[in-house]
């Protein structure tokens, strides 16, 4: 996925840091589902959708909700009218978001490449750049974080360690008896071995 942004610059949210070297981009983007969020704070539909997308992203990446952050990265492609508007919007969004610098001409190239004509739009991409969903806005509204599993499978990024909070609770309930089962297994094995020894001794004695 870093290939899509080769030679380009991405901004780390709320920081002046730029993610631009091939190595940095690789670390930030490779082996992840990439969401390109085309939006603008001047657009009423975007103002309605952005809080949903924020919650969606946090539920997949924040340790409050998941044991381990999922393999997802989001890049904000702004249609804001000023850099101040873009900065103000990003300050209200998750720190893990990346963004195309304001006024970057690459924005137009991305809009044409992924046929983005109106906002909000969320283009979902595999790590190799193939499109999974042309615009996932309605899917995110309808399904929430559950739709990430479908994208993960489509991208062939099956991560056994990724668990939504509710899944983690189920897993914990199932796993809490695991040490007891192991101990019982060991005791059963010891008892079985002792019984076998006794049988062998009895056979030898007779």
TrEMBL record:
Name the record gives this protein: NXNL1 protein
InterPro entries, per the entry: RdCVF, Thioredoxin-like_fold, Thioredoxin-like_sf, Thioredoxin_domain
Coiled-coil annotated residue ranges, if any: none
Source domain of life: Eukaryota
Gene: Nxnl1
GO terms for cellular component: mitochondrion
Biological process terms in GO annotation: photoreceptor cell maintenance
Lineage, opening ranks: Eukaryota, Metazoa, Chordata, Craniata, Vertebrata
Residue ranges constituting the Thioredoxin domain according to the UniProt record: 1-142
């Amino acid at each position: 996925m870093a290939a899509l942004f080769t030679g380009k610059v991405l901004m780390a949210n709320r920081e002046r840091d730029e993610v631009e070297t091939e190595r940095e981009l690789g670390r930030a983007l490779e082996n992840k589902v990439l969401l390109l969020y085309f939006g603008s704070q001047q657009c009423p539909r975007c103002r309605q959708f952005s809080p949903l997308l924020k919650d969606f992203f946090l539920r997949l990446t924040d340790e409050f909700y998941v044991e381990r952050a999922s393999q997802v990265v989001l890049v904000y492609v702004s249609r804001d009218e000023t850099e101040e508007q873009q900065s103000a919007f990003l300050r209200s969004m998750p720190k893990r978001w990346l963004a195309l610098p304001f006024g970057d001409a690459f924005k137009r190239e991305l809009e044409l490449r992924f046929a983005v004509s109106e906002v909000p739009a969320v283009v979902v991409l595999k790590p190799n750049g193939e499109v999974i969903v042309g615009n996932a806005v309605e899917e995110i509204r309808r399904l929430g974080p559950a739709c990430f599993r479908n994208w993960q499978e489509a991208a062939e990024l099956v991560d056994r360690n990724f668990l939504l909070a509710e899944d983690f609770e189920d897993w914990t309930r199932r796993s809490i008896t695991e040490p007891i089962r192991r101990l019982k297994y060991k005791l059963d094995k010891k008892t079985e071995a002792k019984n076998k020894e006794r049988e062998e001794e009895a056979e030898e004695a007779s």
